[in-house]
Amino acid sequence: MAYLELRDIHKSYYLGKEEFPVLKGINLDFELGEFVSILGESGGGKSTLMNIIGGLDREFEGSVTIDGQLLDHKQEKQLDEYRRGTIGYIYQSYNLISHLTVLENVMVSLEMTSLSQAEKVKHATSLLERVGLAEQIKKHPNQLSGGQKQRVAIARALASDPQIIIADEPTGALDSENTADVLRILDEIAAEGRLVIAVTHSQEVADHGTRIVHLADGQIDDDRRLREAYAVPEHDNRMTDRPLPASASYRNAYKHLTFSFWRNSLIMLGTAIGLFAVMLFSGLGNGVKAYINDQVNSLANPTAITVTRYQDEEDGNSGIGQTTAGSGAVDISKQMISDDQMKQIKHVKGAKKVQPGYQLAGAKAKLQNQDYNLGTVQTWSATYQKKLVKAGKVPGKNEILVDKKTVAKKFNTKNWQSVVGKTMQVTWMTVKADGRTPVTITKDLKISGVIDAGKAGTANVVNYQTVRSAYKEAGAATNALFATVRVATPDDVKPFQKRIAKLKGDDNKRLYSAVTVGSILDTINTIVTLATNVLAAIAAISLVVSALMIIVTMFMSVSERTKEIGILRALGESKKDIRRLFTSESLLIGLASFVLSVIFAYGIGAILNAALYKIAKFDMIQISFGNVVTTLVLALIISFLAALLPARRAAKLNPIDALAAD
Ligand SMILES: Nc1ncnc2c1ncn2[C@@H]1O[C@H](COP(=O)(O)OP(=O)(O)OP(=O)(O)O)[C@@H](O)[C@H]1O
């Protein structure tokens, strides 16, 4: 049984429905150690036959048996393996990969062997030395002469130690000197015990082989032996081949990226800008949220909770500041917290300190014959931060801390501190002990200091005892209107709020509401998050543009590299390997864009922060680790999706058509 057997090979091409038969029943046997030349007229089907032997063509009739094993052309995997391990191809037009160096071109077929990286380099270098190219290994193909290119192609064909070398007009483009060189090398290859099948038009070339097969009209019309085939030496250490590892695809993709560096840099820049915008807006959202938190917490104590009586709809939803004293219609005792209830609140788990508080309704003041509308007047509680007191001190008995904007500055615009120490007559309303009858209270209070509630509004603060004793004197209800509860840490606020909301009175109705800085912040934060997400989503639209750019680049890359795809397929790479070549290139673009975008985001973020710091005294852009990770995931998803279609198209290319591409 011969090493390679072709039986009854028929092949036709079709133009529409019209059939053009090219091979009409080829029967041939080949042995290892032979150097067979295939001669025949142009268009006679020589290349077609080589593609069938080489495992590139699957659309034919007949059988190819290799070393006793029938090749199943339906099984692509088996064919990939066959091309990888058994076949080495040499073409008239060299078919080198232009963006790889001479050494790398030879290394491509070694990627599919089990050699270590160092062994691959050593082996490729020794092959290039053998074909006389030791000096040229770092050059790119376009820096070589035709003869040199063909020798690189021979070294590449030999690299994976194949049994069969197919050379399709290997000397067609060479001068006589280079032709002689190449023929000598091919003869040496046959002498090593390999089967060399060379297609040629030249009788002179054909005469160098051990046998000439002549093809005419789709059939063999002559098969002549010129000399004995070479004896096959024992090959005990044949190289073992294996599928292309993923790392090789990534390396190849990286080399291609750096080869077209400027074009790819622009694509990366475009993608990076989109990613950067997403990251910057997210960072701005974080910054604004932190800024608001900081501002609110600096005005009010985050561990203080204001507890009021719960008002359901029927009772009229009047919280602090809307005391209905004077209307007579509503029993405001329902809005008050009795001493017993105060004790009950004290016993709720988490309460560290509980302070009763009053709010003075409709408070007006007279200071040196000038009337003031006081707005909010409350008793001092833990909600206030001491740093809000801008002059003087916290009020003691019969003292008042007045608002900077509405009282102190109106009293004396420039020297507003001068109000401290003056006596102010304050009038407000409440109800008698029956909870209904209105009563007006007037007190002379000494101004202990000035408070500035900032943008949060106005604040006038009196001492709790001052109000309580005034109420006692006037026979008014003395129950507090609210209680200020301190908890240990801001994290204890929410659990406390929940517990207090659960407390029920005798009528099984909810007793208390709790307002905290946190609950106000929650609302603000929700709005800021929403706004940030909208901004980030708008920025994300630019990512769609980025994705389109990557898709276009990848399609361009596929059409530029069509020939390379054919070469890689001929060398034994599978469809999957080709797909991965393009997805890895796209993922590398995504990854590089991500790195760029992080640099932009942190760089420009720092510049913006420096500029805004002058205004807000706060880092307005705070890009979190989570933002960075999200951006990375986005970048990878986009680049992966963008590569899907182009990679699919590349993988689907017919290797023969791809090799024929210009
Ligand atoms: N993809 C194709 N579709 C249609 N016809 C094709 C295709 N490829 C080759 N042919 C035709 O098949 C015939 C054989 O082509 P092939 O390339 O095998 O010939 P060849 O003997 O190698 O020719 P040459 O010596 O000029 O290279 C030619 O007539 C060619 O036009």
TrEMBL record:
UniProt-recorded Gene Ontology molecular function terms: ATP binding; ATP hydrolysis activity; transmembrane transporter activity
Segments passing through the bilayer: 261-281, 511-528, 534-555, 586-608, 620-645
Pfam families: ABC_tran, FtsX, MacB_PCD
GO CC list: membrane protein complex; plasma membrane
Keyword Transmembrane helix on entry: yes
Keyword set includes Membrane: yes
Domain ABC transporter: 4-242
Keywords: Amino-acid transport, ATP-binding, Cell inner membrane, Cell membrane, Membrane, Nucleotide-binding, Transmembrane, Transmembrane helix, Transport
Membrane-topology annotation of the record: Multi-pass membrane protein
Annotated compartments: Cell inner membrane
Protein name: ABC transporter, ATP-binding protein
